[in-house]
Design goal:
Layout lengths: L15 E2 L11 E4 L3 E4 L5 E5 L7 E4 L15 E8 L5 E8 L4 E8 L4 E7 L3 H4 L18 E5 L12 E11 L35 H14 L26 E5 L2 E5 L5 E2 L1 E4 L28 H10 L5 H15 L3 E2 L5 H4 L6 E5 L21 H13 L5 H5 L5 E6 L12 H15 L4 E2 L11 H10 L3 E4 L22 E6 L19 H16 L4 E6 L29 H18 L3
Parallel strand pairs: 15-16, 15-22, 17-18, 18-19, 20-21, 21-22
Antiparallel strand pairs: 1-11, 2-5, 3-4, 4-11, 5-10, 6-9, 6-11, 7-8, 7-10, 12-13, 13-14
Helix pairs in contact: 2-3, 6-8, 8-9, 10-11
Length: 593
């Protein structure tokens, strides 16, 4: 059988728009951070770099005598890319005005040709009144520079890290002038369903009947799980390994895997924060934002689901529906931060966390735990034991549940520079978990990114069964041994958070990995998971999160369009189809067939 590649549907960018000079002439292009440029007669440039440092790449500068680029006549800035590398690589397109910037990222397989596009947040369209939420805008009439670069660095340095041909930079599609709202008419801007009330889009909910109709229609469209899966979502027809009755890890043919309780190889495709509601803002803080009467918690997802299911106690019915959805979407794992009522149903593998917030542990002045304190390990062990013994809790059931893969302890911790504190932390966590759930995997503390010191990786690898990493990038394919990446350890890695978002369905922010549109979200999902599937360390890829964040933001202000579903529980079809395709093909891809 030939090597399997995940199919990609090319995304359109709309008609070409006449605009300012965007030609890649050698007098207006400069290399940044040791990048090398080769100009070609066909109006393209080959960008090469061995550096993963922030901004390594090229900058296109305005023509002589001009203060900036005028990008105000297009909806997107687009460019054609061709990968000349032998590995999957990632490229970002960035634009900047005098004070702000925005970017879009993309992953390219070897030899792949595609188009990257960046949605332009025009200040003359998306402006909002002072004190109200809205899109973060740019002065697109005066963009100071355009760049193709590496952001969120984590790769080791090696020759050919970045090797891409760039051509045909252009504006495409007309600006969305229909989105413009007079500032005097902006408030209120949140409709009774939690949507942006001033915008129009295909999937916008307008009546309660729309919600009820969604349930009937989608139930008729859902598919069973991929045929290649066993009852856990593992590889039914793959190698038969030892069945231990619980999840474990094993290295097979040079690649790490999870192994199901019945002994089948398992790659974890998950979604985080699968709940009926989350992050509900306080309506009394900004009464004039809402059409609906303000409440302490503006729980629009809950209110919409009550209408969808026709009753207030909808949770059990909804979670049955969600589990059918996950099967249909090709998702085999319930990720972190999800509702215990869902994981306790026992229908799908899941991961849980022991939360350290609020636990009385000795701390250093910088906020990390004083793991050298004589009381640290005992206090940590006691807190884990107490959480695991709460009657009826998800953690209490999970310690013996075959569907529970394992536990995280801690999340995105700020580790100190002194490596003496690392190993005592991971050792204490491992031993605390072993005391209450000896058959469950210790999944680490969910690092903030893939870029960590060798000492931290080494300490984690010694004690973690799986090292979990939250990393918002377009590719993990070249996560390598090197100065700023993984040392030479031999331990499985879980990509425990990633996402892609765009300015769509009235949302105000595209998240930590912006892309041009929904088609690009689907494409990037495939690429980031494909890169992980081909990598020997990775054993899972988990999307953050199940539902878009609130339009007006959660407690820390995040209001990202990053869900598989929106606030009205309407799925994003392109992303769901992409996930299904990955679920269908992942075991062949992982096995290198």
């Amino acid at each position: 059988m030939g090597r399997v590649w995940l199919a990609i549907v090319l995304c359109g960018v709309g008609p070409l728009v006449s605009a300012t000079d965007l030609s890649l002439s050698s007098d207006r292009v400069e290399a940044v951070h040791s990048a090398r440029l080769t100009f070609e007669q066909i109006g393209s440039v080959v960008l090469k770099s061995s550096s993963a440092e922030y901004s390594s790449g090229l900058r296109l500068l305005p023509a002589a005598g001009e203060s900036g680029f005028d990008l105000s006549s297009g909806r997107y800035l687009a460019a054609d890319l061709e990968s000349l590398a032998s590995h999957q690589q990632r490229v970002c397109l960035q634009v900047r005005d005098s004070s702000r910037d925005t970017y879009a990222g993309i992953a390219l397989d070897p030899g792949e040709k595609t188009t990257i596009k960046l949605h332009l947040p025009h200040d003359f369209i998306y402006a909002s009144p002072e004190g109200a939420k809205g899109v973060k805008t740019l002065d697109t009439r005066n963009i100071t520079d355009i760049a193709f670069l590496v952001v969120w660095p984590y790769e080791g340095q090696f020759s050919g890290l970045l090797n891409v041909r760039i051509s045909n930079i252009r504006l495409a599609g007309p600006p969305d002038h229909a989105r413009k709202v007079a500032l005097a008419n902006y408030l209120p801007f949140v409709d009774p369903y939690g949507q942006y009330m001033h915008g129009e889009w295909k999937y916008k909910v307008r009546t309660d009947a729309d919600l009820r109709g969604d349930l009937v229609r989608e139930r008729g469209e859902l598919k069973p799980a991929p045929e290649a899966w066993d009852e856990y979502g593992g590889w039914a027809n793959g190698p038969q390994l030892e069945a231990t009755g619980h999840f474990r890890t094993e290295k097979v043919n040079g690649k790490w895997w999870f192994v199901t309780p019945t002994g089948h190889l398992f790659y974890s495709l998950g979604i985080n924060v699968v709940k009926t509601d989350s992050d509900a803002p306080n309506g009394y803080m900004h009464r004039d934002w809402y059409v609906s009467p303000p409440q302490t918690a503006m729980s629009f997802p809950t209110w919409n689901l009550r209408k969808k299911f026709g009753k207030t106690d909808f949770a059990e019915d909804y979670y049955d529906f969600v589990l059918d959805r996950l099967e249909s979407w090709g998702i085999n794992t319930i990720g972190n931060w999800s509702d215990g009522a869902l994981t306790k149903l026992g229908r799908k593998p899941y991961m849980l966390a022991f939360d350290l917030s609020g636990v009385d542990l000795p701390k250093l002045s910088g906020g990390f735990y004083d793991t050298l304190d004589a009381t640290f390990a005992d206090k940590l062990k006691s807190s884990v034991q107490a959480a695991a013994q709460v009657a009826g809790s998800a953690q209490a059931q999970a310690v013996t549940d075959p569907m529970c893969i394992g536990f995280f302890i801690g999340n995105e911790l700020s580790f100190p520079t002194d490596s003496a504190y690392y190993e005592p932390f991971f050792k204490a966590c491992k031993e605390a978990l072993a005391a209450v759930a000896p058959s469950k995997l210790y999944l680490g503390s969910r690092f903030k990114s893939l870029r960590n010191s060798e000492a931290l990786w080494t300490a984690a690898a010694k004690w973690c069964d799986v090292i979990s990493v939250n990393s918002y990038v377009a590719s993990v394919a070249v996560f390598t041994d090197g100065q700023y990446a993984a040392p030479k350890f031999d331990r499985p890695v879980l990509h425990s958070e990633f996402h892609f978002g765009t300015l769509h369905r009235g949302m105000f922010s595209a998240g930590l990995c912006p892309v041009g549109d929904q088609c690009e979200r689907a494409r990037n999902y495939k690429r980031v998971v494909e890169g992980a599937l081909r990598h020997p360390y990775f054993v899972g890829s988990h999307w953050f999160q199940y539902r878009d964040q609130p339009l007006v933001g959660r407690g820390d202000g995040e209001n990202y369009q990053i869900g598989f579903v929106d606030v009205c529980d309407r799925p994003y079809p392109a992303l769901c189809r992409a996930a299904r395709e990955v679920g269908e093909m992942m075991y062949n891809v992982r096995a290198g067939k």
